[in-house]
Design a protein that fits this description.
Number of domains: 1
Order of helices and strands: HHHH
Distance between the termini: 56 Å
Shape: elongated
Strand content: under 5%
Length: 124
């Protein structure tokens, strides 16, 4: 449970920091005519892609390393090692990670949507 909480806090922190760092780009896009909804959708899209990349790397790596570590522990403990593939668990974790990433992106997206233009480039 602690690892899940740390992962969610890390994702939220990454979204806030990235949003802050790309503030000038978002303001420029707003000045060029991009609407507030499109700016908000950038944060949601960013969060979704970060979650998907983490899953593409994390699930196979976690399953492989977990299998390797368990094989070493089972060999030293003289336990019969039977391999199981928890695909349903992995799929439910993947779905939960993507959904929580989208949910965490909503406050960041709302904050991005409320920002003012850096400079008003529109003609008078």
């Amino acid at each position: 449970m602690l690892v899940i909480a740390l992962g969610l806090v890390t994702l939220l922190h990454a979204l806030v920091v990235t949003s802050h760092c790309r503030d000038q780009e978002a303001k420029t896009l707003r000045a060029l005519g991009l609407g507030p909804r499109a700016i908000g959708s950038l944060a949601v899209t960013h969060s979704t892609f970060v979650a998907l990349i983490a899953l593409v790397v994390g699930i196979p790596l976690g399953l492989a390393l977990g299998r390797l570590v368990w094989a070493l522990i089972a060999e030293r403990s003289h336990v019969i090692d039977v391999a199981t593939r928890p695909w349903t668990d992995a799929a439910s974790v993947a779905l939960a990670v993507v959904l929580s990433g989208v949910i965490l992106a909503v406050p960041v997206a709302l904050r991005s949507m409320r920002r003012q233009l850096a400079v008003d480039l529109r003609p008078d």
